[in-house]
Each structure stands twice: as structure tokens, then as C-alpha cells.
Amino acid sequence: MSQDQDRTERATPKRERDAREKGQVARSRELTTAVLVAGGAAVLIARGDDMTMQAAQLLREALIITPADLASTADLARVPGRILRAGLMIVAPILALGFAAALVGPLMLGGWNFSSKALMPQFSRLDPMAGLGRIFSGRALMDLLLGLLKVSVLGGIGAAVLWSQRAQLAGLARMDPLTAMGTAGSIIMGLLGWLALGLGVIAALDVPWQWFRHGKELRMTRQEVRDEYKQSEGRPEVKAKIRQVQQSLARSRMMDAVPTADVIVTNPTHYAVALRYSSDRMRAPKVVAKGADVVAAAIRDLAREHRVPIVSAPPLARALYRSVALDQEIPAALFQAVAQVLSYVYQLRRWRAGTPAPVVPEVGDLPGGEIDPAPPS
């Protein structure tokens, strides 16, 4: 009991998947029964008259043996089969409806689920003490109360309908067979309609209860949640998925920082590193985005779109990409090279504001690099 009280945590997706594999899903027998009875009532209302006429005709044929049927033993032996086939054709819609209800009912709550584990023998159920525990458990008591409620409701509905039709029921014996079958069919259709309504009310109460009870049975303790998390974290595929998601999120945030960069230093095709520097908030320029190959191309395209200057300096780009992490300041060894790049960028900004054009540094002024021949205008 204390263990059940400790189960305060909602079931994890893994716990729910494991339960489905074992065949443990929310189910409502009342819902399936309600669908079946409601469908049966609908079929009788739609085809009740035709089915009554066919049943009356079948009854007459069953009571009549023609000379042709007595011509030989084989002909006589075929009579029961012919009557049986005709009877099956009459009740075929109801049989089809029962099959459909068996499929639709589970689909409406819990969905279709086939589990081979549920078919395996469970020897733990042979334990007499465990069996007594299940018999006197709260679940068994609730099932008993629901069963008594269902019997009371349906029994009351059936008794009320039959009592209201007592005059017609008493007169069936005085009617001819065809009229009696039609009257009985009408009474049965009315009875099924009222039973379907009662079952619908019971199912409306049972479905949320079964859903709540299933969720409660799958609840976990906090320790179980922690253990499952640790177990899942240790699986290589889970770790790879987590890294993939983290990298995707980091790349998304990184690309958002490209438009705010002061300059993009490129390889020019294999690497791209975005630098930002604010003298009043930073001690040194900071790498706000970097990437290789496809990511580098995306950084360059985004930089051109937002008119961020691009400088081609292969050794500097490689050094920045390999030695500086995201959102980290550049090391002192690269101060001079980066200062030359930023100096050109700041001159370029002043030129755009109307000052004289900047002097493009010689290739040797950068560590083996050169300025992008077509900086954004």
C-alpha cells in the first residue's frame, strides 16, 4: 500500500510503450457493448421489416417438405443445409455488425494493440495469496459495483419496456404467425433502442474511469523515474540523439548571431568564423558563430544578406575555427591579425558614412590572407 502511495509521478513515454507491449492498455467493455447494441438497434430499424418477412418465409419453408425433397436420401439431406444458409443470410448483417463492433470498440479507447506477451502464461497468477489479493482489491470492488450498476440499469430498462408492452405481448398468441413476428420485432427494436441508450450512459461513465485507472496503474515513483532516466541516458542511441538536438539548437542560436557580427573571416570556402567586438563590454573580440563546409556557406550567405563584411584570410580562419570555442574571446596570439581585420572593417564603415575610402591592406599584412575582392557595398 505504501508503495502505491509513493507512485506520484506520471508514467513516462517509455513506461507507456512497455505497457502496450505487454498488452496493458485502457479498455472499456461497456463501450464495446454499447457500440454493438446501438448498431444492432440501427440494423433492426433499417432492415427490421425485411428481416421479419425473410424469417417468416424461412419458417414456412422449414415446415414444408416437398415431393422433390423426398426424391432421394441426398435431396432430403440437403434440406437442413439450405435452411441454415438462408438463416445465415438473414442474420448476416447482425454478425457483420458484431465483428465491426469488436474492431471499433477497442479503437475508440486505447487503440488496436496486439501483444504476444499477453498470450504467454503468467505463473505468478497461480499464487493463491496473490489471487486472494486481487479478489479483495479495490479494483475488484469497483468492478463489482459497476457490474451491479449495469445489471440494475439494464434490468430496470428491460422491465420497464416489457411492462409497457404487456398488452401486445399477451396478444401474440392470438395473432397469426406473420403478424406475431412483426409485433415481436417491433418490441425487440424498442427494447434494443432503450438498452443502447442505457449502455451509452454506462459507457460514458466507464470510459473516463478506465482511462484514469489505467493511468494510475502506470504511475511511477520518483526513484523509478530517476532510474529510467539514467538507464536511457546510458544508451548510445539516446546519447547520440541528445547530442544531435543540442547541436541543432546551438547551430540555430549561432546563426541568429551572424547578423550582429562585425566581420566574417573565411578560408574562403571551407571555414567561416563570425567575430564581434565591443570595446566597452569585451576585453577582446569574441567568436559568435563558426562552421565548416555547408555551415560555412550558410554563414557567408547570411552575412551577405545582412551586409556583414567578409574577409578572406585562410590561416586566420583556420586558427580561429580550431582554437576558439563559440562565445569565447580570441587568444592573445591572434590579437594582431584580428586587429588588422577589424581596423579595415571600421574604416569600411566610416567610408560608407562619407569619409575617404579605406586602404585595403596588402596580402602580407594579414597572416597569409587577403580582403574579399567584393565586399558588400
UniProtKB/TrEMBL annotation:
Q: Which keywords accompany this UniProt record? A: Bacterial flagellum biogenesis, Bacterial flagellum protein export, Cell membrane, Cell projection, Cilium, Flagellum, Membrane, Protein transport, Transmembrane, Transmembrane helix, Transport
* TM region(s), chain numbering: 86-109, 144-164, 184-212
Give its localization: Cell membrane
Cleaved signal peptide residues: none
**Region (Disordered) location:** 1-25
Q: Which Pfam families match?
A: Bac_export_2 (PF01312)
Q: How does it sit in the membrane?
A: Multi-pass membrane protein
Say if the entry is tagged with keyword Cell membrane.
yes
Which NCBIfam families does the record associate with it? flhB
* Role noted for this protein: Required for formation of the rod structure in the basal body of the flagellar apparatus. Together with FliI and FliH, may constitute the export apparatus of flagellin.
Q: What is this protein called?
A: Flagellar biosynthetic protein FlhB
